Amino acid sequence: MAGGDLQDSWDAPASTEEFDKRSFRLRRPPSLFFGTSLGRGRPSWPWSLHSGLAARLAWRGEDRQRRETLRQYLLLLQAGLTQHCCCSLNDERGGRSHHELRLHMHHLGRCFSPDCRIIRMKNYKYFFKKRPVRRKTFIVLSTVWLLFALKLLKIERLFSSSGLYLVEPELSNSNIVINKYNVRNSYFLNCSDIYDQDPVAIGKSLEIRRKNIVDLEDEDVVAMTRDCQVYRKIRRYDQKPLSQEELDFPLAYSLVVHKDAINVERLLYAIYSSSNVYCIHYDKKAASTFKAAMENLASCFPNVFIASKLETVIYAHISRLQADINCLSDLKTTTVQWKYAINLCGQDLPLRSNFELVAELKKLNGANMLETVKPSSVKKERFNFRHEVKNDYDYMPSKVNVSKDPPPHNIEMFVGSAYFVLSRLFIDYVLESSVAKYFFAWSKDTFSPDEHFWATLVRIPGVPGEIPRSEADVTDLQSKTRLVKWNYLEEGLYPPCTGEHIRSVCIYGAAELRWLIKYGHWFANKFDSKVDPILIKCLIEKLEDQQREWNILSSDAAFVNRNSTQPSP
């Protein structure tokens, strides 16, 4: 450092009297200042030290504070941050002698203090001083960054293995996935005991729910479906039994999904039959890894495909209905002569094996199965007034105080569920009829049109599989399409939820396995592996057992040769 630079950087009072006055004028304690250097050519330290530190605390503090301050500061000095000079001064208030600290640049090599003059560095402004907004913003951003870093590092893999439960231990401990673990689950559960509601088995399932449940991430599904031959072998798709009855009565599925690829993968496995055909519609705004997982999954089977036209799906918006229409249009063009179309979402699972479902649908004899009831005054608000998405960040349509015209062709309105089991002839009518097209266009600015579109059209006189308007309401409990347990109906219409609730809907627990299968519905919602992985495992295992048993007891009493029907690698 040159002499001129030295004088610019240091301020030396001319006398002790001047120092005595100035030592009381020190404005701030030592501050934190990121990237501040203590001298030209010196390394940058994460703090700067003010020369008035000891003077301020020595004059204003108690003896204990003085000694502790000097002790801590001298430790910093020993670390090589700077050098010091000390001299004895008298405390004017108490007459006691204490040591005052002097700072100077290390290459001065001496004290400028025969008369106890202080050498001070320039004050650096404290970044957060008088800037509480900056301080709060910095803390928030730092916390978010830390949480994001922990997420990227998959910090749960560092936890004690005793606190982890792997939903798919064979896959999570293998090299086929990205996020590999080396954990053995400490609980073994027999699904027959869960089905029989054995108290010990149910208790174990509750213990598992208290652990840190780890399921496969979207990127793991991408990895495991990259090699279709290996994937189908792992899931034993080629071992799925198939009867002649199922071959003669193929089904079509529309799956509208947007997250949790592993749940969609399990759903497809649970409903898969080589005699059926499956359309997957994923939300255009879904995560890229989720989209990649769906593309890989569809590519592994000749009877599974991605919808040719994808929508950006908004809750309660016409885009949700359009997604199903897109899939149904694609399903109609396939070579598979399916008899019924079924739509599901990613948190659904079947309650019947494919063999049992085919047997149930044959009994319908072309009729449709869905919820359709007369609307209440509250539900009428959904289509008597216009609804629209006003901003790009709105997550659902909002009401506009503009009345809508009556529905076209004097259609009488009914409401129900977005989910259905519909005959092929009825689907053909919906896709080709001008009445259905006009009604679809009229429904575009209504709230949740998927909950009145199907329920209304199925009541139109003369449509295939018509449910006459004169007939009583078909409630969600009477329609076998989809079983949903609402919390306000629990302990009245059905037993309490043993899992968790989300938006008044039960996410089922393992103790409900027997009730789900015995209630009589064909599908159910909601299932979540992070809430209760045992229920999902045991339900799929139970369906596999039923599929095998019914195939053995079927009229053919043998499996069809699957070599000609199973997809090639």
From TrEMBL:
What Pfam families is this protein classified in? Branch
Record-linked InterPro entries: Glyco_trans_14 (IPR003406)
* Gene Ontology molecular function: any one: acetylglucosaminyltransferase activity
Record's subcellular location:
Golgi apparatus membrane
The record gives the membrane topology as: Single-pass type II membrane protein
Q: Supply the alphabetized keyword list.
A: Glycoprotein, Glycosyltransferase, Membrane, Signal-anchor, Transferase, Transmembrane, Transmembrane helix
Q: At the top level of its lineage, which domain of life is listed?
A: Eukaryota
**Pathway membership, UniProt:** Protein modification; protein glycosylation
Instruction: Identify the GO cellular component terms for this protein.
Output: Golgi membrane
Which family is it part of? Belongs to the glycosyltransferase 14 family.
UniProt name for this protein: Beta-1,3-galactosyl-O-glycosyl-glycoprotein beta-1,6-N-acetylglucosaminyltransferase 4
Q: Which organism is it from?
A: Pleurodeles waltl (Iberian ribbed newt)
Which lineage is the organism of this entry classified under, starting from the top rank?
A: Eukaryota, Metazoa, Chordata, Craniata, Vertebrata
